[in-house]
Amino acid sequence: MSDRPERGTAPPGPAAPPGSATTGEAATTAEAATSVEPVEPAAFPSEAEIDRAVDRLYAQRLPDWERARVRAQQVLGAVARATTAGGDTSRLDVTQFRIKDRRRASDKMRRVLRDEPELAPFVATDPERVVPDVVGLKVLCKTPRDLADVVAALRAYCASPDTDVSLLQERDYVGAPKDSGYRAFHLLLRVPIEDAIGDDAVSVEVQVKTRLQDAWSELTHEDMYKPGGALKPDRFHTSVARAMAGLLSEVDLLADELATELDARTEGDEERRETVVIDGEAATHRGRRTVTVRTTGARFALAVDGEGRQGLIPAVRIKELLGSESRIDVDDHLQVDDVLTVDVEENSKGLYFYPVSLPARD
Fold first, then answer.
1. Per-residue model confidence as pLDDT tens digits over 245-266
2. What's the distance, CA 282 to chain centroid?
3. What gap in Å lies between CA 82 and CA 74, rounded to an integer?
């Protein structure tokens, strides 16, 4: 979706009027015209010219970039809320961002021009076109399922007629990892801003990745080895980095399976019966006792009884007590150190505490 000019293209010349010359004569005339008026290639900017262009860009656009960053994070916050649908918001972290250091931007511009020299004229006229990812945000997800949900939700948001934020480009490094093993999904957004000093919109790069994909970058010291880094990856580093990426990808898939199973155990729609069915299996009633809440979250709470046994309080039981059909956050209704009277239910999959009632709040 890049709007960069295609390399090697040139406007067609005018057609010769009928009868003005033969095909051979026209070709000779065209060749002569070309030799008389050669087109000079654009001068390639020097390192000093690149640095000055970047300095001017930062002096002018830094306030615009900051406003675009704030607005883009608001968009990601809305997307995260839509993705979790009132559930466990801790699954997504949309707080991380960066505005590229100007020296890094200069280095990036040099690398881009080395690979795409046709962009050289834009260094003086539109340097942001050469380096469109100065503003960057990161979305960290617990599982690949969450990553896919965020990407789909962000696409839908940008396609909505109710927003002026648009999607310029996608790069899927999850389905097609880089040779180094790097995995993530990159989206380039066009974010309009009010009272801009320069253009009225800013390109913002959003990197969506799992926490393990992000950890891979730290563990392999990616910043040191990526293009422009201080070190060149040798065969050993490359093989180890790829192996680590593959192993972490397998762990991500296992995390997906665990999350799916946990959802089934804590957010099911089974009806309360005399015999409790939990995750498709009948549970044995172990009596009624008093427990103390130790931790709470969106989908469940954990509590301990007087014998030190830990049990899970599922969201489905809190929904029953509230008489709610919609999703709820357990930690909105239970707090650490709450003392509850519960029915104890147990099957081969776990020990569950079903509160008899919710604690009264002042």
1. 889 888 988 887 777 776 666 5
2. 40
3. 12
